[in-house]
TrEMBL record:
One of its GO terms (biological process) is polyamine biosynthetic process. NCBIfam families: MFS_SpdSyn. Keywords: Membrane, Polyamine biosynthesis, Transmembrane, Transmembrane helix. PANTHER family: THERMOSPERMINE SYNTHASE ACAULIS5. InterPro entries: SAM-dependent_MTases_sf. The chain crosses the membrane at residues 21-41, 53-73, 85-104, 116-133, 154-174, 186-205, 226-246, 252-274, 283-301, 307-330, 342-365, 400-417, 429-446. This is Spermidine synthase. Coiled coil: none annotated. It comes from Novosphingobium resinovorum. It comes from the Bacteria. CDD domains: AdoMet_MTases.
Length: 746
């Protein structure tokens, strides 16, 4: 060993590890990274609207910046640690010049499509800080590993994901309810300053380490097969996390904030898989195949009859799969000198999984077929430790074992088909449980053969609801867009045709020609909107101009009256196709001259001429994903501008899980509006649905005349008021969630 090398080794040995400092640095950086994503999305909502292409663009920006940050960390590794620290701190200080975080005032570029302009705006707004913060996790691990006695750095990646999980949970539970958007941005800037200080201290603690001792091995070649496996093992959990969110909110149990749970479990899987103590990861990997067999069999379920038990099982499936695949990824990790390359490939795999699920799948599939496909892919990738190892059995020759496997699979397929043909009730719990137990047992028996295991899993998926899901696809009952999955279905008796968005009913039309123009579901004769629209000629005159936000099946069109001028605002062009074809005829039959404006309603209404409507109906809150920007005081100001001074504003706030009445009450008071409430419980529960509508006006006389129109169907004063109104700067649904509904209690 040369004198120089010996001196470097001795210097490195005298450099203290300071593990706590590096853990704190990684925790703070990851916390800030996952806090900024929902914060910027919240900032963008009033300006860009709630169109999914905005969120898809945001996701692409985040993934691109994360990849760029990991690539930058990998590139930085070629320098001595002192120079790395100097470059990184310089970039951090440059990025700090863009704080506090907010959307920059960038005008639209002529000729540039929105699909390109939105990522450009988001990237220019948060790109510098997101880029440098995203690099800190792999970079801090590399700096930590520079001291030989520091130990393996991989557990610090677990700390990184723990920080990410904390940031993810902190936003909806703490930041959004307690702080305005402006204060959120200022608090984040303070956290960024703390991060810069911690990184400076971490760099100073490694000032005497010229370069990583293992740097000489950094150029070792990694086989392409290994890199491909890294990509797959990181892509499948990433895609499965997003597909689990889609599957849950679309077909099992749509509820507010549910998207947080799969992402949180995905992050926690890294904490388990990359821990120095392997006991938990080993245990999860051993039980994961059984969990995949049991809960994966419901991956094709699409009947919307989910419970909290189904949610828990689906989330358990995600946690087991993600932990198992990430643990295998950990087992395949390279030497510490290849650390940043390893994380760069992992990041690329995560991005591929996200692009497949969020961008490609909605264009290719009519339902969330990516979910069962990813579960099957996980079954083909996860380690399988047979509980019944026929392959090593001395009582059976290998050839006979394969023949037995074929016979068993053939029998399983035949039995599964017969059960599908003869079952009387596909939702019968006892039958479902028996079928599951049988197929799980069969899967355990063939676990020694990976393709046999996957085949049994596929049979189980088909048997536990997949048959009906496939039939809906073959019969073209579904349509998918970036806004969701729509299911068009006629009931068994051929009386009604319904349109559902996931588990939320969007409208229904009678197939009997004598009743085809009846407005059903939320729009029955006793509903608030029916009473209000019937009173419009007496209140606003016979030639009132009516605007409706939310087209649905077009049911409200048949509440129009002669002489009126109607305009609909609808965000999804697919919904318009349902209402302009033979599937639903309300719009064509009752308001053939109505205009339909495609786009985010708040943005479109902001561009109409002042006083364009006497009546404005906002029917966009019955789904479980609340478009918050349509219910702030700023949104009410947009509606008031579009209405005449004595105009009537009607809000539909029926919702299973969120009580919006206090919010409307507080916003009405803050906006100088009076409000009446109509809660309708129709006797005919087949044709009509309970609903709650709120009527608002700046003119008390308008509401008084409305209340006098139907004494037999009274309105009541809206007394419910939130402590503070919702604004673009501060709003949270958390205080208004009906938690008893989520737990199944009355």
């Amino acid at each position: 060993m040369t004198d120089t090398a010996e001196h470097m080794l001795q210097t490195a040995r005298t450099t203290p590890p300071r593990r706590g400092l590096f853990v704190a640095t990684i925790l703070v950086g990851s916390f800030l990274l996952f806090l900024v994503q929902p914060m910027v999305a919240r900032m963008a909502l009033p300006r860009l609207g709630g169109a999914p292409n905005v969120w898809n663009s945001a996701m692409l920006v985040y993934q691109a910046l994360l990849l760029a940050g990991y690539a930058y960390a990998h590139w930085l590794g070629r320098f001595a640690l002192k120079r790395q620290a100097m470059i990184h701190l310089a970039l951090l200080l440059i990025a700090a010049l863009t704080l506090p975080i907010g959307l920059i005032d960038m005008p639209r570029i002529a000729g540039l499509p929105e699909a390109a302009w939105v990522p450009l705006l988001l990237g220019a707004s948060i790109g510098p800080v997101f880029f440098v913060v995203s690099a800190q996790a792999p970079l801090m691990q590399r700096w930590f590993a520079a001291a030989p006695e520091a130990g393996a750095p991989w557990a610090l990646y677990a700390a990184s994901n723990l920080g990410s999980f904390a940031g993810l949970i902190a936003y909806p539970l703490l930041a959004e309810p307690l702080l305005s958007v402006r204060l959120q941005s200022l608090a984040w800037s303070g956290g960024f300053a703390v991060l810069v200080l911690l990184i400076a201290l971490a760099g100073f603690s490694r000032r005497n380490t010229p370069a990583p001792i293992a740097q000489a091995h950094a150029s070792e070649r990694i086989p392409a097969r290994t890199i491909g496996l890294w990509l797959l093992l990181s892509a499948v959990p990433s895609g499965l996390m997003l597909s689990t969110t889609t599957h849950l909110t679309t077909d099992i149990f749509a509820m507010p904030l549910l998207w947080v749970i799969p992402l949180g479990l995905y992050l926690l899987s890294f904490v388990i898989a990359f821990s120095d103590r392997r006991g938990s990861a080993t245990f999860v990997s051993r039980v994961a195949p059984v969990v995949v067999l049991f809960m994966g069999s419901y991956a094709m379920l699409s009947n919307g009859s989910g419970t909290l038990w189904a949610v828990a099982g689906t989330c358990l499936l995600l946690l087991c799969v993600a932990t198992t695949l990430h643990a295998r990824l950990y087992d395949l990790r390279p030497g510490e000198a290849q650390l940043t390359r390893f994380y760069l490939v992992m990041s690329a795999g995560g991005a591929l999984g996200g692009v497949f699920t969020a961008l490609i799948a909605p264009l290719v599939f009519d339902w969330a077929w990516e979910h069962p496909l990813l579960v099957l892919a996980a079954a083909l990738l996860m380690p399988l430790r047979p509980l019944l190892n026929w392959r090593d059995s001395t009582d059976m020759e290998p050839g006979m074992a394969h023949i037995a496997l074929g016979v068993v699979l053939l029998f399983a397929g035949f039995l599964g088909w017969e059960l599908l043909e003869t079952m009387l009730d596909p939702e019968e719990a006892l039958f479902s449980l028996m079928l599951t137990v049988f197929l799980v047992g069969l899967g355990i028996m063939v676990m020694a053969w990976r393709w046999g295991f996957a085949a049994v899993l596929l049979i189980a998926m088909v048997g536990q609801g997949g048959f009906w899901t496939m039939r809906a696809t073959l019969e073209h009952q579904r349509t998918r867009s970036y806004f969701g999955i729509y299911t068009l279905r006629d009931d068994a008796e051929g009386r009604f045709r319904t349109l559902a968005h996931g588990t939320t009913l969007h409208g229904m039309q009678a197939l009997d020609p004598a009743h085809t123009h009846d407005a059903l579901t939320y729009y029955g004769p006793g509903s608030g909107v029916a009473l209000a629209l019937a009173a419009v000629p007496a209140i606003e005159g016979p030639q009132a101009r009516v605007g409706v936000v939310g087209l649905g099946t077009g049911s409200l069109a048949c509440r129009s009256q002669r002489g009126q001028d109607w305009t609909f605002f609808e965000i999804d062009p697919v919904v318009l196709r349902f209402s302009t074809t033979r599937q639903f005829t309300f719009l064509k039959d009752c308001t053939p001259k109505a205009r339909v404006v495609i786009g985010d309603a708040r943005l479109e209404l902001a561009h109409v001429a002042p006083r364009s409507f006497e009546v404005l109906v906002i029917d966009a809150f019955s789904s479980d994903a609340i478009p918050m920007h349509l219910l702030t005081t700023e949104a009410l100001a947009v509606y008031r501008r579009a209405l005449t001074p004595g105009g009537l504003l009607i809000l539909h706030i029926s919702n299973r899980y969120i009580d919006l009445a206090p919010v409307v009450g507080a916003n009405a008071r803050a906006s100088g509006l009076m409000a009446l409430s109509r809660l309708d419980f129709p006797e005919d529960e087949v044709r009509y649905t309970p609903s709650r509508w709120i009527a608002l006006s700046a003119d008390r006389g308008v509401l008084d005349r409305l209340a006098r129109q139907r004494p037999d169907a009274p309105w009541s004063k809206l007394e419910e008021r939130a402590p503070e109104p919702w604004t673009d700067d501060h709003a949270s649904i958390l205080p208004y969630v009906r938690w008893s509904r989520l737990t199944g209690n009355p």
